[in-house]
Amino acid sequence: xxxxxxxxxxxxxxxxxxxxxxxxxxxxxxxxxxxxxxxxxxxxxxxxxxxxxxxxxxxxxxxxxxxxxxxxxxxxxxxxxxxxxxxxxxxxxxxxxxxxxxxxxxxxxxxxxxxxxxxxxxxxxxxxxxxxxxxxxxxxxxxxxxxxxxxxxxxxxxxxxxxxxxxxxxxxxxxxxxxxxxxxxxxxxxxxxxxxxxxxxxxxxxxxxxxxxxxxxxxxxxxxxxxxxxxxxxxxxxxxxxxxxxxxxxxxxxxxxxxxxxxxxxxxxxxxxxxxxxxxxxxxxxxxxxxxxxxxxxxxxxxxxxxxxxxxxxxxxxxxxxxxxxxxxxxxxxxx
Length: 336
Description:
Elements: H1 7-14, E1 18-21, H2 27-34, E2 41-44, H3 58-65, E3 71-73, H4 84-88, E4 95-97, H5 99-113, E5 120-123, H6 132-138, E6 144-147, H7 151-158, H8 173-186, E7 189-191, E8 195-199, E9 210-213, E10 236-239, H9 246-254, E11 257-258, H10 263-274, E12 279-282, H11 285-294, E13 302-303, H12 308-314, H13 320-332
Parallel strand pairs: 1-2, 3-4, 5-6, 6-7, 11-12, 12-13
Antiparallel strand pairs: 8-9, 8-10
Helix pairs in contact: 7-8, 9-10, 10-11
């Protein structure tokens, strides 16, 4: 867990020597820093070796602040934590966002803060339970919400579709219906898969795999209507065929901002971004991995490397690390 392991790679990246400082506060750290020459670089020991770090201990924050003249936070991925090194120190020194933090906040603000309309969001994942807050926040901010992955089964079940043995959280259908209601009030259209690949077992290329369409009285992909057929009691959804992606792809062409998961739809979003007709913002570990696997991550407008911070921002929460920098901006009138 020691940051000593980072000295060599940091030095190689910077092309200059990096000194390891064996603590992040106290007399030893102060002596090391006072003997450094102008322009030299030091990396302090892991702040989490101090019990007060995660408790945002004021004494620890003051001890770290005593080592410097300015504080720059370049770790958006840790900005959702109110720790001594991410929030406490920011109140004790002139504080600024680093370039990576700036790029992240600019991209997210462009995506959902003050976006060009229309806006569409794609959210995937296995469980609704981990995304209820995200979905509830998004329906008030986007024009189209496209739900995929295992969580789509829960929403289909809430609409009366027999999803068979497909992964679904049937105990959360009431929450799904509440999200439908919020979307209706906000003028957001929720899109669910209308065409899926089903099989009797969860395995690569099972022999019983075939396509099955869940139809609706009002239209095959209208999520606000009750489909009249499902997947069968013994079958489970495995994947989306290309036809199931046609309508989301059309939404991409209508939208200004996009989050992405599936490789096929990722390539569609990447192509539209390259031609300058789409602003595409993606985040989440599985999503980023899928973009890299599809070879299109570099084509997106912005790909967030944050995990929990990205998720909490999507939920509409205040991030303590960012809020502390914004408070400094208000006090000093300096740009964050």
